[in-house]
């Protein structure tokens, strides 16, 4: 890769990818991020002064800015990670998900298409647009089977619907205009620097503070967990070896129920904070009203990326979760800074009639 423009690079996955790109190569990396509540430049402090890294604050929906940036930086790759991504927030306020994930992606595609058409033939042939999506676009699985790249879309939340729509636009720009796109759909990510509204960091924070640990419904919802470092390595493999127009699933082959995850977190926090534990953190678990439209199970068939591109996850879940708990225990200052805005670890995404706060 010559130069890379990463959109949403101050977010959880984007910042991890940028750190990898800047550390592992001399690639010129430009980070375009709007810096919404979940975007945090603290996550990029370690590479902030590197000569091959540049940050630009802006919106993917700002066509003039994006076109100007593309012509200025001349990237050979654009990686779209700019998205609103929290299901509960999409239930409380779906409009912003439409604005960013659908209209923003559409405008970004328009800008990239204009730029790509202006490139000399050899550069145009090597150009790639990578769109990063989610397994949630497929809806809910039963007790068996896995989503494949040919699975039918059946989104059940406003977030999932917005990502499904953006996926369709990316596909359409390949089919209609031949823009060389790649799409990845990933399972649940975890790791350091994740905004603490997501399950794993939220439960770590609450367990550390001996606060109630709310579990939606019966806690038997199943997710496949993927370490963010493995995910970002997979994205680079797709960029380097993937076929334009194709979709690749990225998963960790780690199916766990939400209850299992929280119980493991409790045990790890207990082990690391024995002096502050009057009782096991498991005693803090509370079952609360389920999320509306909560999908029961996700699981990813990742055989395509494994057999065709040679990627395999490197981090097993137990060691990955242990290192993640350690990181949050050791980086309370980062957590305090990123949660100093509107979000206060409260529950989002309830029906207006429901009053189960935590």
How does this structure look, described?
This protein is of the alpha/beta class. The chain has a domain at 3-191 and 226-253 and 299-314: NAD(P)-binding Rossmann-like Domain (Rossmann fold, 3-Layer(aba) Sandwich). It contains twelve helices and twelve strands. It has a seven-stranded parallel β-sheet, with helices on both faces. Strands 7-9-11 form a three-stranded mixed β-sheet. A two-stranded parallel sheet has the order 8-12. Helix 1 links the parallel strand 1 (3-7) and strand 2. The radius of gyration is 20 Å and the shape is globular. The termini are far apart. Residues 352-358 have low confidence and may be disordered.
Q: What integer value in Å does the Rg equal?
A: 20 Å
Order of helices and strands, N to C?
A: EHEEHEHHHEHEEHEEHEEHEHHH
* CATH homolog superfamily of the domain at 3-191 and 226-253 and 299-314: NAD(P)-binding Rossmann-like Domain
The averaged pLDDT comes out at 91
CATH topology of the domain at 3-191 and 226-253 and 299-314: Rossmann fold
Work out the number of β strands. Answer: 12
- The parts where pLDDT drops under 50 for at least 5 residues are 352-358
Main CATH class of the domain at 3-191 and 226-253 and 299-314: Alpha Beta
Beta percentage is 15-25%
Main pleated-sheet profile: 7 strands, parallel
CATH architecture of the domain at 3-191 and 226-253 and 299-314: 3-Layer(aba) Sandwich
Record the strand order, biggest sheet. 3-2-1-4-5-6-10
Q: Number of DSSP helices?
A: 12
Please identify the structural class as seen in this structure: alpha/beta
What is the straight-line distance between the termini?
46 Å
Approximate helicity band: 40-55%
